[in-house]
């Protein structure tokens, strides 16, 4: 595993270890982060660790045409149960993602350093949020990095305060991205929740072809 100084470039992807860890160190400048996502690399670590950079193989992705919408979700969408907005309150969305409790996870990987970095990416137009509302109450949301030139959206995290709220927002987002010509949503690593929505694993080398 390679140690990165602020001035160092990322090593070749092929240098990841068996769990997909490529390097540690470096920084979270906008230039570093956009370069990372454009190469299929993302940061993931907690407050007790240095910055860790990952590129797992296989890679969990969702092709918009493979989106699965259950009958129960179809009914919620038909009834317009929630209201969905985009980039209205990025800061509150990422803060709620940081505070969300997740099974098998202690603490959060969205550290203060990460939060500051992604707020800057949002200001620059790279980090996007989805807000899900029940009346005037924010009940769910998600955020990610939109590589518009590559037609790829890199999902980062989501939260929910009401049943199905984050899923509702995710489905809206996938349909919106499909209409904009996005070819793939990067989901990074496998979860049952993402698989239930139609995401699946592909070889990393295939994933990287979409980023060229």
UniProtKB/TrEMBL annotation:
It comes from the Bacteria. The keyword Acetylation does not apply. GO terms for molecular function: leucyl-tRNA--protein transferase activity. InterPro entries: Acyl_CoA_acyltransferase (IPR016181), Leu/Phe-tRNA_Trfase (IPR004616), Leu/Phe-tRNA_Trfase_C (IPR042203), Leu/Phe-tRNA_Trfase_N (IPR042221). The keyword Acyltransferase applies. Keywords: Acyltransferase, Cytoplasm, Transferase. Pfam families: Leu_Phe_trans. It catalyses: N-terminal L-arginyl-[protein] + L-leucyl-tRNA(Leu) = N-terminal L-leucyl-L-arginyl-[protein] + tRNA(Leu) + H(+); N-terminal L-lysyl-[protein] + L-leucyl-tRNA(Leu) = N-terminal L-leucyl-L-lysyl-[protein] + tRNA(Leu) + H(+); L-phenylalanyl-tRNA(Phe) + an N-terminal L-alpha-aminoacyl-[protein] = an N-terminal L-phenylalanyl-L-alpha-aminoacyl-[protein] + tRNA(Phe). It is found in: Cytoplasm. Its EC number is 2.3.2.6. Functions in the N-end rule pathway of protein degradation where it conjugates Leu, Phe and, less efficiently, Met from aminoacyl-tRNAs to the N-termini of proteins containing an N-terminal arginine or lysine. HAMAP family: Leu_Phe_trans. Belongs to the L/F-transferase family. NCBIfam families: aat. This is Leucyl/phenylalanyl-tRNA--protein transferase. It comes from Salinimicrobium flavum.
């Amino acid at each position: 595993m390679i140690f990165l100084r602020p001035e160092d470039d990322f090593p070749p992807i092929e240098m990841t270890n068996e769990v997909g860890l490529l390097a540690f160190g470096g920084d979270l400048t906008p230039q570093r982060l956009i370069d990372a996502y454009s190469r299929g690399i993302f940061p993931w670590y907690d407050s007790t660790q240095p910055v860790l950079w990952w590129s797992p193989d296989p890679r969990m992705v969702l092709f918009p045409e493979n989106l699965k919408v259950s009958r129960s979700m179809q009914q919620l969408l038909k009834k317009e149960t929630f209201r969905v907005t985009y980039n209205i309150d990025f800061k509150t969305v990422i803060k709620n993602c940081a505070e969300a409790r997740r099974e098998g996870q202690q603490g959060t990987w969205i550290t203060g350093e990460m939060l500051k970095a992604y707020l800057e990416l949002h200001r620059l137009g790279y980090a996007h949020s989805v807000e899900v509302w029940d009346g005037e109450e924010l009940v769910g949301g998600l955020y990610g990095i939109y590589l518009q030139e590559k037609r790829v959206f890199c999902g980062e995290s989501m939260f929910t305060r009401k049943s199905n709220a984050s899923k509702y927002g995710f489905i809206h987002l996938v349909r919106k991205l499909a209409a904009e010509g996005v070819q793939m949503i990067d989901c990074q690593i496998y979860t049952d929740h993402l698989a239930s929505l139609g995401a699946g694993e592909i070889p990393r080398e295939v994933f990287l072809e979409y980023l060229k």
